[in-house]
């Protein structure tokens, strides 16, 4: 299996399937069909089977998948069968919300360091995590083996933070600032634009009028 | 053009193009090719042309698109050429961050009402917006012509809030709680799972090891 050939959208759907499976396992379910797996997320069963087929053979024709085994394998494929250390830059409202977001640690993403450049925030503490000066980024990334960075600063400072992160050896940057960033080769980046979901709504709502 | 036939992923990409165009317009650019439009977002030019073709003829073969005109038309298609009133339920850290998120109002989404069920929060004020009891939801949705709701409460209370929203006449629910919700026919819903983006990273980072 050549992992480069798997479309990003399929990886995204694997995450959704992994969540469904965790829910089913908690409910005590043992087997699940591709139809049931896709249904809650409005994904056709043919798509579910195609997505899984990128990664080999799962389950038996006609009897569906073992909830436990498929869940285990998807978590392994997604790299969430282990913990990842994350640095958060930006200790404002959004940073605070992300720091407290239970969905990250649930999937093994641990925010182990928080940075800001405001003297009023540096050395304050969030649940035992000291807010550090951005100048300490490189050193902390090495010491704490951090591979992922979250940018939660205003748009105007976001590119600079991303540059610092990649220079410090962070391999993947998740950006919440409403601005597209450029990162050097060897560093990945993704934008979370919270308004895009609302625009899906406004598109459909406009048609209803 | 039958709007139901346009895939959701295409609408999402239209939002990305609209952002690119706004940036280009601010930079004083007049024309743009489908290749340039897709490039920053790593979308192939064939896909850009296909996405736009759902909505008719834009630009001229060979000379690209007028930045201003295409931007105007995409904003109209996406329904962001006007304002939408939004209700936010959940006045915790995440709610506060979403309330302050500049990306919403920039695209015309105005959080005009905030609700919580905690007596310690109700009647407090955020930049002039009084935090209301969830009991006032229906009345406020009518009075303020609110069509979109944002759920920023813990997972355990999310379904109940979504139910209340749909009952109150809200047509689209954006859920930030790490839990899939069910909404009745006539009400749309979308989940924002902030960890999914990180899982794209962990998938690729696992392969690098």
UniProtKB/TrEMBL annotation, chains A, B:
Domain CoA-binding: 79-180
Keywords: Cytoplasm, DNA-binding, NAD, Repressor, Transcription, Transcription regulation
Keyword Translocase: no
Binding, NAD(+): 90-95
Quaternary context: Homodimer.
Family: Belongs to the transcriptional regulatory Rex family.
Identification of the protein by name: Redox-sensing transcriptional repressor Rex
The organism of origin for this protein: Candidatus Desantisbacteria bacterium CG_4_10_14_0_8_um_filter_48_22
Gene: rex
